[in-house]
Amino acid sequence: MQTIQIQTTQNVGIQYAVAGLGERIGAYLLDSVIIGAYVIIVMFLLTSVGINTYWIFILFYLPAFFYHLISEALMDGQSIGKKQFGLKVVRLDGNPVTLGNYVMRWILRLVDISITSGAVALLSIAVTKEGQRIGDIAAGTTVVRLREQRPVQSHQVIEQIDSDYVPQFKSAASLRAEDIELIRQALSTYKSTGNVQPILAITEKVKEHLQIESDMPPVTFLYTILKDYSYLNSQ
């Protein structure tokens, strides 16, 4: 399994599995079925009511034309196909993917897929280290396989939480699954390497985001946040 490590803006390295060719093809085919179904339905509805004006057809077909750009921009790097296969577009420098990145990927689909029937994309994905098609290379992105996101479990970083547990930071419930994954990764890195820098960086980010003041040691603080998040989101 080909993997890459991306350094986030919180200075935490996260390892992702690069999306395989089969997965990307599967996601593309599913998206193509959705686009095709939309076009057929629109054509049927318009013709059934006697509308055959060219510009109206073009207007209703625009969502299909911009499908990949719109879905990735609105679904945080995913389309329906990518979501079904657990894939997502990410930037290699760890920053959030911008609209400009999505536009670049979408424009170069013309070269990657449309003109060459996908041959250029397949070749580029197969030979590049990060599994990138031409659009990804230009945008500084790639497509990765997401691990299943769920509330933190005892076998990951914390012990089983008692039913009478009293959360210390109730605002921890507002954290996103991505935030919890960053905390988990920072603790895992500290446990395996002793590198405290990711711990310190993510601790400050969490305190700032949740507007928390605490004198707890950073490691204890993060474990407490994980326990509070897990408990509050299981109620």
TrEMBL record:
<keyword id="KW-0472">Membrane</keyword>
<feature type="domain" description="RDD">
    <location>
        <begin position="18"/>
        <end position="140"/>
    </location>
</feature>
<dbReference type="Pfam" id="PF06271">
    <property type="entry name" value="RDD"/>
</dbReference>
<feature type="transmembrane region" description="Helical">
    <location>
        <begin position="25"/>
        <end position="46"/>
    </location>
</feature>
<dbReference type="GO" id="GO:0016020">
    <property type="term" value="C:membrane"/>
</dbReference>
<dbReference type="InterPro" id="IPR010432">
    <property type="entry name" value="RDD"/>
</dbReference>
<feature type="transmembrane region" description="Helical">
    <location>
        <begin position="53"/>
        <end position="70"/>
    </location>
</feature>
<keyword id="KW-1133">Transmembrane helix</keyword>
<feature type="transmembrane region" description="Helical">
    <location>
        <begin position="106"/>
        <end position="127"/>
    </location>
</feature>
<protein>
    <submittedName>
        <fullName>RDD family protein</fullName>
    </submittedName>
</protein>
<keyword id="KW-0812">Transmembrane</keyword>
